[in-house]
Amino acid sequence: MTRTLGPWVIKGTARVYQSPWIEVREDQVIRPDGKAGTFATVRMKPGVSVLALDADESVYLTSEFRYAIERESIEVVSGAIEEDENPLDAAKRELREELGCEAEEWVELGVVDPFTSIVNSPANLFLARRLNFTATERESTEIIETIKVKLLEAVQMVMDSRITHGPSCVLILKINHYLNAP
Amino acid sequence: MTRTLGPWVIKGTARVYQSPWIEVREDQVIRPDGKAGTFATVRMKPGVSVLALDADESVYLTSEFRYAIERESIEVVSGAIEEDENPLDAAKRELREELGCEAEEWVELGVVDPFTSIVNSPANLFLARRLNFTATERESTEIIETIKVKLLEAVQMVMDSRITHGPSCVLILKINHYLNAP
């Protein structure tokens, strides 16, 4: 059934690939310039990214081998939102699972979209403060190292691309601005 | 042929979808915990994102309907790197095509990865200064509005999620830090 999507017309759609983590759809479209074509999009579960900040301005990062970029990546705590969860509950769960950490204070710092033309998978950003550490509950597939650095060192790691994961870069720079902007 | 990828073992790989813009591969893997499974990744052309900054601290953003997130998105000038290009040449071309602008001064501000576990498509970030405007050479599929705001207003737009495109958020906050950090 034909429908419009902004300046696009979608004549039909087909799911061309699906796994538990991603879905790829190919649409038959009329483009904004009136020409016919196809447009493929990738849908992944929405996610959360959390930066845990200690009273002494230390933050907790993780280093893990990331499959798609084929190397270790230093990132804030991140994960997918499950179907029965709201973003804050997912953030609390991921912080507990990855760092063994509960936080008494949560600040919502907006949303980031990884690739707006092709990928649908918004990441919700959170600052977690007033931390209490217990024990981690990591999944067995995950080999994760925890890295504790000062917030300003994390900012420097973003500036010189030691950290490149998009939501991690945005969250670290947003928190630095949130805490330190005049 | 079996190969290792960090803590993963890849037993085989199949291309399950391809278009001019994306390629989806499904690998047969042995996961870090020793269990067999499949892992799908999405490859897109590497890209560039450019923020043009005027002598009066104005920056030039674009607003365009973005297909995957199904709404208008305010972003810095962005596009894919073509096969015969290096990142800087792609950045110069995109700035010329989208804004009709040449810049005499270029600052490289690193790389951002949109989704490190599943997507391979790094974006190279640039600040462009000392601008000269000529005429735009936009592609016919693109309906783009240009928005000129002060850099600090662009930072505020990132902070309150009026801008959510990942590389745009990172580049705007990096430039603000680069220019204004003590």
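Chain B is about 20% helix and 50% strand.
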